[in-house]
Amino acid sequence: MNNHLHTALRLAVDGLPVLPLRKGKVPFGNCKTCAHNVCGGRPNMKTPGSCACPSPCHGWAAATTDPNVINSDTWRRAWLYASAVAYHPGGAGLTVVDLDNADAIVWASEHLPVTQTVPTTRGEHWLYLGRMQSANGVRPGVDIKSTMAYARWLGFGSGEMAYLPDTMRALAVSEPAPARPTSRALTVSAPVGGGECRHRTPAFLERGIAMAEQRITEATSSVHNAVYATFLAVLSTHGRCGCLAEDHITRLFTAAQTKGESARHCTDAWDNARTRLGL
After folding, report:
1. Is the pTM of this model over 0.85?
2. Closest CA to 146 of 81, 86, 93
3. Is 279 exposed, middle or buried (0-12, 13-18, 19+ CB in 10 A)?
4. How would you classify the pairing of strands 142-145 and 135-139?
5. Residues 238, 229, 27: CA angle, nearest 5 degrees
6. Can you tell me the mean pLDDT for 156-168?
7. Rounded CA separation 21/172 (Å)
8. Which are the contacts of 233, defined by CB distance < 8 A and separation ≥ 6?
9. Pick from 178, 184, 212, 233: most CB atoms within 10 A?
10. pLDDT of the residue at 187
């Protein structure tokens, strides 16, 4: 039996709704039947199960504890290509506080009760009993994963799970500050001709930024990929003429955060797009 499938079945028995993650640690995209959400289901729908599709193609909303689904022929094919197992914390009555760096861990140690802790690549997951609204970027390096979200399974960790503190609920209802791109994101090579904008009118740039915001806002699956592709398109068109201002980039970052991207993911996507284009 595939290792990921075996892990998923074991977690499902313990009441954790699971789903496979493909390469890049992201959910599988919509299948042909569900393309463009013709089935009526969405990765951000409030309750799972509104789509009867047998494929695990609706992100967190596809997560299940049903062993017949997890071990079905369709899901078994997905497990063959899976790079990891994820679970829906809110579906199991849990909340994961994702601490992405050492500073975030220090903050948690000072403000949150001791609980079950799982090491991650960059920091730690702190697991609490109780569900709440998920939110990204509630503090620098701190994301909340509970309802309408998924977390990668990294093992049981250590410690006894505590109850979710009101501190985290208060952070989720606070309006997070929009991500601000670093100044180096505006440092681009000027073209021959002194950097004069070849687009001639500010209206062309404004229309391009508005279309980019709309593309991100309307993304219904693989939001990470949609954000990166949009950043890449904007930079390929406007990144070398010097016409992009900080407020334009902030608008793009804000649109991405509204779709659930963290500030770090926005910055990574922007930097990766710049690197690909040689900016």
Report:
1. no
2. 93
3. middle
4. antiparallel
5. 160
6. 92
7. 26
8. 212
9. 212
10. 41
Terminal-to-terminal C-alpha distance of the chain: 46
Tally of CB atoms within 10 A around 244:
23
What one-character DSSP code corresponds to residue 58?
S
Between CA 120 and CA 74 the distance in angstroms is: 30
pLDDT at 200: 54
Confidence of residue 45 (pLDDT cuts 50, 70, 90): low
CA–CA separation, 87 vs 20, rounded Å?
9
DSSP 3-state of 214:
helix
As a three-state string, the secondary structure of 109-163 is HHHCCCCEEEECCCCEEEEEECCCECEEEEECCEEEEEEECCEECCCCCECCCEE
User: What are the structure tokens assigned to 228, written together?
Assistant: 């990166």
Burial (CB count <10 Å: 0-12, 13-18, 19+), residue 44: middle
Q: Are 10 and 26 in contact (CB under 8 A)?
A: no
Q: With cut-offs at 50, 70 and 90, classify the pLDDT of residue 201.
A: low
